[in-house]
Each structure stands twice: as structure tokens, then as C-alpha cells.
Amino acid sequence: ENVLTQSPGTLSLTPGERATLSCRASQSISSSYLAWYQRRPGQAPRVLICGASSRATGIPDRFSGGGSGTDFTLTISRVEPEDFAVYYCQQYDSSPITFGQGTRLEIK
Amino acid sequence: QVQLQESGPGLVKPSETLSLTCTVSGDSVSSGGYHWSWIRQPPGKGLEWIGYIYYSGSTNYNPSLKSRVTISVDTSKNHFSLKLSSVTAADTAVYYCARLRRTSYYFDYWGQGTLVTVSS
């Protein structure tokens, strides 16, 4: 299976700072099949980015995705208080569908 | 607005079968563009995809669970279900149902999740 490794495990920032989250795949992924999710405490995950770089409906433009092959990034240009949450990447270029272990974005 | 809601027992005994249902509103499980999926998250661990079903009944399961999993769909009730047999404490998790878009393969709607504990 295609193992996704996210880094860092925890990212401590203050509101207004830039956040850069990494997702590295053990096998190359077509960009079309890489997505990012946000999970706030007590809530279900919600999709932020699909196709590696396309924002989902209703997602603010401070969120952006990029990368190709085995290395992908999620960037939050200026972190807002509501952005402190756990972020996951997910692939389905090959079965089984896999998720990264998550990056926790916490208030510094 | 599409909504998914999980339901089922919150406590299951070891060696028994876990059974959950996901009721869909705002969409039809018979709509052709989606796979209807189950995902779980054990305490302190990451998300694990369990499997999905298409309205036709075709399924795809995670090989790590395939021998114990059955996902079915009931189009008349607009819901789909998960059965996981021979459960152990390792199957304790929050179980989510979600809609997977067939062409771009991301989960666009999720249920709130339900905690299932395996304990005697």
C-alpha cells in the first residue's frame, strides 16, 4: 500500500503566521488523487483540497495545496484562530485508500 | 444539503459482530457518481479506510480487514451498512461513514462519527 507520512507531527504557531504542512508518499501519486482534510475537535473531517491543489467549495483562499509525485504540501498563508486543528492527507491513486497520520496545528 | 448519520450499538463484546448503519439524506445512494464508504479512527491513531460500496452492490475493501468486513446497501431505505466480524479490542474506534466521489476519489461529505467500544 502507499504509505503517506506527514510532517511535522505537531506545528506550533501564533495566529497570522504561515503554516506549511508536508505529506510524503512511499509511491508516486497522480496529483488528481491527493486530498487534504481538516478535523476540528468533536467534528467530522472536512475536505479542504482535492486534486492536490483545488480548493473545495467554500474553503477560504488562505488554504492552498501543491506538489507532485511523492511530495505534497498544504499551506495556510495566515493562520486564523479557527484553523487550529488536525490535518490529514489522503490518496487513492492505488488501492487501498490511505491517509497520513495527521499534523496537529496548535496555538503557540 | 447532503447529510450522513451513523447509528448502531456503542458497545460490542469481543468475538461478536459490529453492525452499523449510515442513513443518507439530501442525496440518493442510487446516484451514480459516488461510492459509499466506511472509515474508522482508533483512539490516538490515524484514519483507516475500511471499504466502500457502489449502489449496484459492487464493493472494495481494505485488504487488512477484508476477511471480516461486509458492506451492503439498501436503496429502498437510502442507507448502507457495515458488518465487522470477530471483533477485538483493536477494533475500538470512532467509525465514520462518508461519500467518496468516483472520478476524483476524495470524501466530500462525512457523518459525525460514532464511537464503538469492544469490551466484555
- H-E string of chain B: EEEEEEEEEEE
Radius of gyration of chain A, rounded? 13 Å
What's the helical proportion of residues of chain A?
under 10%
What class, by secondary structure content of chain B? mainly beta
Q: If helices are DSSP runs of H or I spanning 4 or more residues, what is the number of helices of chain B?
A: 0
**Rg calc of chain B:** 13 Å
Which consecutive residue ranges of chain B, at least 5 long each, have pLDDT under 50? none
Shape of chain B: globular
Helix content of chain B: under 10%
Strand residue content of chain A: over 45%
Identify the quaternary structure here. heterodimer
State the secondary-structure class of chain A: mainly beta
Mean pLDDT of chain A: 95
How is this fold's topology laid out?
The complex is a heterodimer of chains A (108) and B (120).
Chain A: E1 4-7, E2 10-13, E3 19-29, E4 34-39, E5 46-50, E6 54-55, E7 63-76, E8 86-91, E9 98-99, E10 103-107
Parallel strand pairs in A: 2-10
Antiparallel strand pairs in A: 1-3, 3-7, 4-5, 4-8, 5-6, 8-9, 8-10
Chain B: E1 3-7, E2 11-12, E3 18-25, E4 34-41, E5 48-53, E6 59-61, E7 69-74, E8 79-84, E9 93-101, E10 107-110, E11 114-118
Parallel strand pairs in B: 2-11
Antiparallel strand pairs in B: 1-3, 3-8, 4-5, 4-9, 5-6, 7-8, 9-10, 9-11
